[in-house]
């Protein structure tokens, strides 16, 4: 039953938060002159071999490079008198598993936002971007972030195992949704701030806590988490919201469309979460119909496995804290 859902997640567990997009921003400072920010994910000391290219005439200044945690950043100036109508392509993107979020901001206040993928590594820069384009891009980014954010999904899965009644499950998932929506909005808009490295470690620790509560419940020691899982979901959901905000800060928000992009990113996260919950419930229903005969110890496997993976993440993330 739940073992089937966990078996689907386990091969992906080791790559939690490793699917990070590259980011390209062009901001028009003077007519036909753009300041360029190019941020590329790194694995250890190695960076992805990606390079932006334009179909029309452009001239670049000397690039200034620096390295931050997990990414290489380059700045330069691009002279492009006729950027609108050109095709932007990312050389080397088709050979990777990452995406590129590209954004162009013009002096007149208009902008263009586009997501480039290994299957579609190029796009034509239109005369103007629309609110619908921004909404669609950030909706897809939200869905992809939650479906590839395996730590968030493991937390939701642990809550589902902890919660045995459908009514309580709805209440618990709703509490988690409300909580992380609050901190996602507050952190993204700059009202609150939390350092990302400790947040990621505590997110992993929250999964360990819920897994331990499952073990305690099955052993006859029913705690507050088993009696009122929505309280745990809300409390830790606030932390998970900071995690979502950290991912969104790496992507960036388009000037002039910040509330719209934030709303649709959050909507995408919720849609992806609902898809995951529905998939787990369908797997459970299918397993019951198959009348599988499992050994007595099998129901204990998911909690121990989830807790073990989450404890590994906790230690790993603490070890990666930046030096003071």
Describe the structure.
The chain has 324 residues and is an alpha+beta fold. The protein is built from nine helices and eleven strands. It folds into two domains: 2-16 and 149-319, no CATH class; 22-129, no CATH class. Helices cover 52% and strands 19% of the residues. Helix 1 (2-13) packs antiparallel against helix 3 and helix 3 runs parallel beside helix 5 (196-218). The N and C termini lie far apart (46 Å). Mean pLDDT is 84; it is low at 1-18. InterPro entries: Put_HupE_UreJ.
Low-confidence stretches: 1-18
Q: How many angstroms separate the termini?
A: 46 Å
The percent of residues in helical segments reads 40-55%
**Multimeric organization:** single chain
Tally of strands: 11
Q: By helix and strand content, what is the structural category?
A: alpha+beta
Q: Tell me the count of domains.
A: 2
What is the C-alpha radius of gyration, as a whole number of Å?
A: 22 Å
